[in-house]
């Protein structure tokens, strides 16, 4: 075969498009495979590991380090591919180094393998969501970006639905849209709402209240769990409902402004797809970053 020098610009651009692709062009198939695997595992499952298993205080700095490591690996692959091509000005391509093989490799890695890995993590491990409204104040803020634990309420999952969970579910009137609310009523529960008091099976959830800057902060509890909710005015409409089998009753923590089961009814258990776990980024109007919310656990 004829001498066909490797072109450094080609190698650089190929590694920019897909980590390891430039090494493959340079004939370093083994290095290409390891670079691609390291990038894929560090950037996607790595984020899931950080979100689900690390302690609260470690989440944000480790997430930043993971991002820097991923970008560093990508940059290393580009520089290494460029340098490798410069060293191969006397180069005879192997029999497998054909344009069709390059195209097939790109499709398999970038169009099949990475999307499947991302979809698996999103479906079974962790999924990010952006919060577009203030219906869950004071616990979840508009402009929060959160991780939702997808190992929740699914066949074989250890985490079943509990009262007090902040859940992600398909909106009953448009199942392509996801809502975030707190689960208050489980199947068979009798729910009553009057003024600022929510009762479950004739027992009030409210344990104490205090004035807040935007209304009344009410502490609710169930067993060993407790959370705060906000009322800016008493409930306009009283509620009295028994939760049907296979359904849950949900309320927003910002009780006076939330659209929830008081308006759209109970939610099928099968539509509860995740549990809000922690904030990984947050900003307020004007683009100001809320640094203090980074890594905050949601309860």
Q: Which key terms come to mind for this protein?
A:
single chain, 299 residues, alpha+beta, 2 domains, seven-stranded antiparallel sheet, four-stranded antiparallel sheet, 33% helix, 28% strand, elongated
CATH superfamily grouping of the largest domain: Umud Fragment, subunit A
Q: Write down the overall mean pLDDT.
A: 90
By oligomeric state, this entry counts as: single chain
- Quickly give the structural class: alpha+beta
Q: What is the correct CATH architecture of the largest domain? A: Ribbon
- CATH C-level class of the largest domain is Mainly Beta
How many angstroms separate the termini?
Answer: 66 Å
Listing every helix as H and every strand as E from the N terminus to the C terminus, the arrangement reads: HHHHHHEEEEEEEEEEEEHEE
SS elements, strand count: 14
Number of domains: 2
| Order of strands in the sheet with most strands | 1-2-14-3-4-12-13
How many separate helices? 7
Nearest-angstrom radius of gyration?
26 Å
> What are the low-pLDDT stretches, counting only 5+ consecutive residues below 50?
none
- What does the overall shape look like? elongated
What fraction of residues sit in β-strands?
Answer: 25-35%
Q: CATH fold name of the largest domain, please?
A: Umud Fragment, subunit A
The major sheet is characterized as: 7 strands, antiparallel
